[in-house]
Amino acid sequence: MACYLFQQNGFSTSFSDSPPTHYALKIRSFSVLTKTSADEYESGEFEAGGYKWKLVLYPNGNKKKNVEDHISVYLEMVGADSLQTGYEVYVDFRFFLLDQNKGMFLVLQDANKKEKCFHEMMRYSGFDKLITLTSFTNPSNGYVIDDNCVIGAEVFVCKERRAGKGESISKIKDAVKCKHVWKVENFSNLGTDSCKSEPFTAGGRKWKIHLYPKGNDLGKGTHISLYLELDDAKKLAGSKVFAEFSLSIVDQMHARQESIIVNDGFSTWFSTSNPEWGRHKFISLATLNQAGNGFLVKDTCIVEATVTVHGILTAL
């Protein structure tokens, strides 16, 4: 839950109880970055909206843009130079700063909520003056405590466009999270074949949970493999569905929300060519079968899927 605060320096700020959906960069020794001879720091890569991204941080300000006494932070598209000529990706993104005193995140985004365009010649966008270095490092503000800080990002692809072709993305407002529970009985008798849940509806589409009890691909023989499958993918005819989802195996013995400890979260595009996403190595067979873990009780396991459809891309 976020509450609006104010606008400044071309961006708006708010506070959120929830951590960033797509990436969090935890810096254990921020002072080391400010004292190093390198001007910038690049995070690891992360995926959002079907593309790979990373954060680029200038702890002493981006000297290439004559920025001083501020922290500069940018979102960079990884592999943007390999995009087709004329291909454009329009993105809505926001940055997060953890206020460790309040236990909340300061959220910063473009004040006009204008989508940013990424392409082969424009691979990054962000804020030259995100926050003053003095304010960021002041312990009373909570952003840097014991030399530790957290900077995060959320990235949502709003539109894609190719030269000579077109695509239309419909963003779903007030998207609803749908939950489906699948009780898998007689688990030991499933053998090596895969099995699927009954279809369920989320975001106006039909979905199934796809389970390999003895593993698939890299997980074969050692893990169970678990995927979310778009059941009617053949009907898309060149269109795509963007969904955020999680898959869980429930700890049946403790019956607490926090006991659902095997959980993987994703956000990606589903299409005719890519109808399912998940993990080859979701949970090891040893962990699943270990007495006391609660994942397999009376030869039954319970699988949960939560799905939120955020948008639909239609080829023009």
Automatic annotation (TrEMBL):
<protein>
    <recommendedName>
        <fullName>MATH domain-containing protein</fullName>
    </recommendedName>
</protein>
<dbReference type="InterPro" id="IPR002083">
    <property type="entry name" value="MATH/TRAF_dom"/>
</dbReference>
<feature type="domain" description="MATH">
    <location>
        <begin position="177"/>
        <end position="307"/>
    </location>
</feature>
<dbReference type="InterPro" id="IPR008974">
    <property type="entry name" value="TRAF-like"/>
</dbReference>
<dbReference type="Pfam" id="PF22486">
    <property type="entry name" value="MATH_2"/>
</dbReference>
<feature type="domain" description="MATH">
    <location>
        <begin position="20"/>
        <end position="155"/>
    </location>
</feature>
